[in-house]
Amino acid sequence: MTRRNLRLRQGGTLQRSVTDKTSSAEVEPSRAAWRYSGVEGHWDEARLPSGLPRRHWRKLSVAIGRMGLGELNRRWQAGQQLIHANGISYDVGSQPQGRERPWPMDPIPLVIAEKEWARIEAATIQRARLLDAILRDYYGEQRLLHERQIAPELLFANPQFLRPCHGILPRGGVYLHSYAADLGRSPDGSWWVVADRTQAPSGLGYALENRLASARTLPTLFSQHRVRPLAPFLLAKRDSLLTLAAGERADPRVVLLTAGPHRETYFEDSFLAGYWGFRLVEGADLAVRDGQVYLKTLAGLEPVDLIMRNLEDSMCDPLELRGESLLGVPGLLQAVRSGTVIIDNALGSGLVETPGQMAFLPGLCRRLLDEELLMPSVATWWCGQDGPRRYVLEHLDELAIFPTFPRFSLYQGTPDLLTAAMREELARRIEAQPEQFVAQERVLLSTAPVPTVSGLAPRQILLRVFAARDGESYRVLPGSLTRVSSEETSHFLSIQLGGGSKDTWILGGTGETPAVARRAELSLAPHASGGNLPSRVADNLFWLGRYAERVETSVRLVRALLPALSGEDDLRHAVSLEAASRLLVGLRYLPPEISSASLSQQLWQVHRLLSEMVYDRTRMFGLGWNLKEMCRVAWNLKERLSLDTWNVVQQIEADLSRPVPADPNARDHAQINLLDHAIVALSAFSGLLMENMTRGHGWHFLEIGRRLERTLQVAELLRSGVAQVPADEVEPDLEVLLRIADSSSTYRTRYLTALRVDLLLELLLIDESNPRSVGFQLLTLLNHLEHLPRHDGPQDPSEKETAWNVLGLVRRAQVANLCRRNDQGRLDAFEDLIREIKAAMCTISDALTLHYLSPVTTSFVRSS
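^ that's the sequence the OP posted. Answer follows.
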């Protein structure tokens, strides 16, 4: 193997190309305002070595120079606010639960000239065709091995070579439907391929979001540059998948398989699923029966025709590939083998991602395509060959060393940073296991301007270019996900490690206005209508309703009891410390022994408990823990919530995640203000769900969860505040119960009299016209249950029968009988009714889980 000559001139003495000829008179007015210089030894995307902007950067540099740093920073902040408002995030899994990290983007795009992009486009298409042909050979005849075009160790020792996939020819004979290449520019201006992404290339959704944010923050410049739109590529990708999935079926079902909400790119999975109108599913949502993949829905199992996956190859089938996987679908590979389902990309496609293969690609391109490789890979030496290994050992300090295949135990990095002893140990390891190591030329990536607090600064960039099969060949996205290093000297361009991103403007578009461009980006086909709700989604909606109700109840409880700590005399909020203690004991938040403690001890315990209920997220009964769970479930449903609804969820979470005030005197006041704002936000959340969600099965499950939980909360509140309180102490505390149940004004308007137990029970237990009463919840719950699809399976007792029975108990209840106390002063009839109500709610919850939220059998199958 001969080394490609990559010795590059240093010192920034690169010559200007013909297309970059720019007169000084044209750019002199903006030169001072531009105030930007590159890094010596690196190609700069925006400027020439002379300091003048490149021709295709001229308009942008003039505009940035005129707007100044202050205006640029203002637009930068506007772009960040847009990203936050859209909920664009990354690396959720490494953050605290429910605290995703906003997507890092700067407002200055990367501009690429039309002719230069044409060369990148042609090279990307050729590379996708080449890698697809290599996969077809590796999992087929393996002629490349027999002809010694590739070393056997790079195939058979590769953990990404899935032996169970050998001999499986995907429908249409295509292994790669989606491909991405990471490209870097060398100091001489040439583009290299740094890495190939063939398993499940990520970043397409983020590239689109970057475009939407960029067109919004720089609308005039976007129009003037005639940027090529991204929507045609995304439409073509969607249409090609539907065409491939259709076969003989008129209504093919396509799903997007995600690793779940803890994956760092879950936002992208959710975004693309909603954008294309595909169902977002996890492995547990799918099942294989008789060689066919089915989607679990409320009404049973429905066949799936194509799976667009964002999941590692080996994790897709725990039955045949990786037994410990909890993310895949058992039996999926058998369904692929049977030809009943297509996977984008084919299982096993990660085989060609190894950097060890890069050294062989020029020869493989000539052998398989009869063409010369249009874009070289970064210079690579696989140590499994004698010549390259000797060169690597002789130039160890000049190269970067990587494992041939992912290995946590193998060294990865630049040996010049090691001590002499460590370099000798690395050399011995390379000699002992040469096939496990790859060396590559150190990449001096090109730079582009990024706004910082001190002005524009150069940062290294790396492009991720996407290609998708369009039927006969491949089509390239006219843009890229451009990643940016965090520091001038940093080599870390990974978003996970603190890097940023840019939009990429490819010149040569139609010149449409930004508003038209944005509409075009979003003018895709609508979501598939009809159909049945996946069981996991129904389960999440059910629990979103329950957690939202628990959060609201906790807020109202703490807000109603906080005045007991201040001793204020405001009659509208007056509540005694004894009443607060009695209620908290009845709710089992405090031990009964507190009633015999001193007033100061009671005050301290109540104060600590209420504070923990708001701020301590480890207490399951508290507001913090239930809010955390509510945000977790909402994140799982992100593609189904409107943008405004999601913004409210974020606002509630941000408000209630503020640190506890250090000053004890200011803590109670801050808590009350916080809880007042939380009530308003929760009301907005409920209103948006009511107004924005279609009245399908999902909305019914959300409301079922909310009504079921409110029934339990009100029943428990009445048990603790009425049944558990002595007769001579109960009536003075009824105002607290009404305030927690948000029914004070209703009570006064209706009864115009002193507080009485019988009237309170009439209002909060029996009255079916009061949205806060148990009777109203049961009647509404029954109505939603009636709208659920019929199910097969155990019917005795069904959830609807249980709801009817308990509603009948409440309707037949006599208030006078409920208020009658026995010799020991207990309300036996009332307590019995409360127990019946709570037991019925648990029975309904269990029945819903059994019948709808975890189906294991086929209720019906959609006809072919």
